[in-house]
Automatic annotation (TrEMBL):
It comes from Indicator maculatus. InterPro entries: HAT (IPR003107), HAT_Syf1_CNRKL1_C (IPR055430), Syf1-like (IPR045075), TPR-like_helical_dom_sf (IPR011990). The keyword S-adenosyl-L-methionine does not apply. The lineage of its organism: Eukaryota, Metazoa, Chordata, Craniata, Vertebrata. Its main location: nucleus. It is found in: Nucleus speckle. This is Crooked neck-like protein 1. Residues 676-691 have a biased composition (Acidic residues). Residues 1-10 have a biased composition (Gly residues).
Length: 691
């Protein structure tokens, strides 16, 4: 066994040894080959043979929608995998988007481009391919949006500007192309860009515009030269360059950009007074519509380095410019003139304010209608008040008032306010004859109630009662229907103690055929007689008034007057008046007025009457019932039914059948309720007995 084991071990070791030793080919001819091959040649041949051996891709014929979707899915997965491996390789994104575009999947292509821009928005090729795709597919607004984003994000890439302007020009949008050029020029590009803009204008025969662009280009070069000197710390040279530029352009071709650059240069040199002088010089000479940027920079400068007064000055100048534009656009915009005048009054000298006032009042309304003059006339009023109160120039104030009253077409309309203000001004100047002359002229030219009232009030304050009487006479000749004037005239005579004259005025007033407020006039006359304790005359007035009207308030007032007269028989007289009023109002169509009278009578009886009189008035009170009536529309068609309340008076014999019918209906209803109660009660008794 041991021998076998030893023999087996030898066999195993021999086998293992044979496996470890590799067989090496025996080379019989060890001489060098005639043609030597390099490693480079081997690699090149291997690469070439690899391409030769690569089989061509099979041609796929897609015959089904499912196959197409499967193909798209596989292709998209391949593209997405490539992007996921390396997001920064923009060519993968572009290939992916172009493949989607070839399938007319524009929305997917846009999404891919947007994702790519999130990865690298500075890539010029990406923006160009994106915009070209939109232009190929005639998506003009999308292309505009992309170009706008591109020039906003990368404004120094000239290729974007060139392609954007070319696209707008090809579309025939000349104004849009010009606008893009203007945006480009704000970035102060190189010389070629300016020449492109000039050539663009010349293609459309816009020589004046081309000339303006040349001027801006030359100005830009001046500023560039000055900044070069400033950059290299040659500040005196830079200042000389700016001064030469100002002299070169002169006052005819002034540009705000040059002065803004000059002012900023001086600001950097801490020469604040020079800056202020430059800004003011430019603002005084450049047209306001071309100086917006100048205003803005001047405001910023004053806020930084100026005092409060300087800031206020620039703000006032800016607002003045705005108001100038408004009134220039519409000279008859009187509200804008008011705001402008308020501004200049607060900050300017008297001559400037007068100049603006004269410009404002020169815009007379073109139509002679009062509604068009109502705002305009306040320009004159404010002008006169300014001259009197602020400028303290009484002569000029008088001239303003006189010019105003001469301008107003008094034959068509007038303004009593102007005449009264003129008269009050003359009184303040202690010139009473001129004030009376002005008011007299106004009444002679264009009489108005307000003028008469103002003139009379003036004379009352001066205690010129004879003049007041004459004015009232003129006033009542002009407007005899004005009850207020009659009452005021009579009150004046009453105050002066001439009672007979006041009574005569009242008699004349109530004798007029037409009055605007006759009830007020009669009440005033009656109150006047009551104050004079002329009770018989008051009764006669009430009787005369009742001959003209049977209004319920007149009867009630008459009864209350008799009650307050203080006589022994006043209660019986008052009751008699109520009786008379009730008889007179039986034929009245307005039943509410009769009810009002009876309620007043009942309140009187409750306070002063006996039980008999109270019962009597209770019997006279009407029954209130609900009725329905048919409604008709304006075209005559039925509009439904309406409920309303009506009153049935017991005194009216015509209504007795209605009252009887109503009483019978109430009795029947009562009997019905009693019979229903009787039917219910036996049941209750049975239940009680059972319980």
């Amino acid at each position: 066994r041991a021998g076998l084991a030893r023999g087996g071990g030898k066999m195993a070791s021999t086998a293992a040894g044979k496996q470890r030793i590799p067989k090496v080919a025996k080379v019989k001819n060890k001489a060098p080959a005639e043609v030597q091959i390099t490693a480079e040649q081997l690699l090149r041949e291997a690469k070439e043979r690899e391409l030769e051996l690569l089989p061509p891709p099979p041609q796929q014929k897609i015959t089904d929608v499912e196959e197409l979707n499967d193909y798209k899915l596989r292709k998209r997965k391949t593209f997405e995998d490539n992007i996921r491996k390396n997001r920064t390789v923009i060519s993968n994104w572009i290939k992916y988007a172009q493949w989607e575009e070839s399938l007319k999947e524009i929305q997917r292509a846009r999404s891919i481009y947007e994702r790519a821009l999130d990865v690298d928005y500075r890539n010029v090729t990406l923006w160009l391919k994106y915009a070209e795709m939109e232009m190929k597919n005639r998506q003009v607004n999308h292309a505009r949006n992309i170009w706008d984003r591109a020039i906003t994000t990368l404004p120094r890439v000239n290729q974007f500007w060139y392609k954007y302007t070319y696209m707008e020009e090809m579309l025939g949008n000349i104004a849009g192309s010009r606008q893009v050029f203007e945006r480009w020029m704000e970035w102060q590009p190189e010389e070629q860009a300016w020449h492109s803009y000039i050539n663009f204008e010349l293609r459309y025969k816009e020589v004046d515009r081309a000339r303006t662009i040349y001027e801006r280009y030359i100005l830009f070069n001046w500023i560039k030269y000055a900044r070069f000197e400033e950059k290299h710390s040659y500040f005196a040279h830079a200042r000389k360059v700016y001064e030469r530029a100002v002299e070169f352009f002169g006052e005819e071709h002034m540009d705000e950009h040059l002065y803004v650059a000059f002012a900023k240069f001086e600001e950097n040199q801490k020469e604040f007074e020079r800056v202020r002088v430059i800004y003011k010089y430019a603002l005084d000479r450049i047209p306001k519509q071309d100086a917006q940027n100048l205003f803005k920079n001047y405001t910023i400068f004053e806020k930084k380095f100026g005092d409060r007064r300087g800031i206020e000055d620039i703000i006032v100048s800016k607002r003045r410019f705005q108001y100038e534009e408004e009134v220039k656009a519409n000279p008859h915009n009187y509200d804008a003139w008011f705001d402008y005048l308020r501004l200049v009054e607060s900050d300017a000298d008297a001559e400037t304010v007068r100049e603006v006032y004269e410009r404002a009042i020169a815009n007379v309304p073109p139509i002679q209608e009062k509604r068009h003059w109502k705002r305009y006339i306040y320009l004159w009023i404010n002008y006169a008040l300014y001259e009197e109160l602020e400028a303290k120039a009484s002569k000029r104030t008088r001239q303003v008032y006189q010019a105003c009253v001469e301008l107003i077409p008094h034959k068509k309309f007038t303004f009593a306010k102007i005449w009264l203000l003129y008269a009050q001004f003359e009184i303040r100047q202690k010139n009473l004859p001129l004030a009376r002359r002005a008011l007299g002229t106004s009444i002679g030219k264009c009489p108005k109630n307000k003028l008469f009232k103002g003139y009379i009030e003036l004379e009352l304050q001066l205690r010129e009662f004879d003049r007041c009487r004459k004015l009232y006479e003129k006033f009542l000749e002009f407007a005899p229907e004005n009850c207020t004037s009659w009452i005021k005239f009579a009150e004046l005579e009453t105050i002066l103690g001439d009672i007979d004259r006041a009574r005569a005025i009242y008699e004349l007033a109530i004798g007029q055929p037409r009055l605007d407020m006759p009830e007020v006039l009669w009440k005033s006359y009656i109150d006047f007689e009551i104050e004079q304790e002329e009770y018989e005359k008051t009764r006669n007035l009430y009787r005369r008034l009742l001959q003209r009207t049977q209004h319920v308030k007149v009867w009630i007032s008459f009864a209350q007057f008799e009650l307050s007269a203080g006589r022994e028989e006043s209660l019986s007289t008052c009751r008699q008046i109520y009786e008379e009023a009730n008889k007179a109002m039986r034929n009245c169509e307005e039943k509410e007025e009769r009810v009002m009278l009876l309620e007043s009578w009942r309140s009187f009886e409750e306070e002063f009457g006996t039980e008999t009189t109270k019962e009597r008035i209770d019997k006279l009170m009407p029954e209130k019932i609900k009725k329905r009536r048919k409604l008709q529309a304006e075209d005559g068609s039925d509009a439904g039914w309406e409920e309303y309340y009506d009153y049935i008076f017991p005194e009216d014999t015509a209504n007795q059948p209605n009252l009887k019918l109503l009483a019978m209906a109430k009795l029947w209803k009562k009997q019905q309720q009693e019979s229903e109660a009787a039917e219910v009660d036996p049941d209750k008794d049975i239940d009680e007995s059972q319980s």
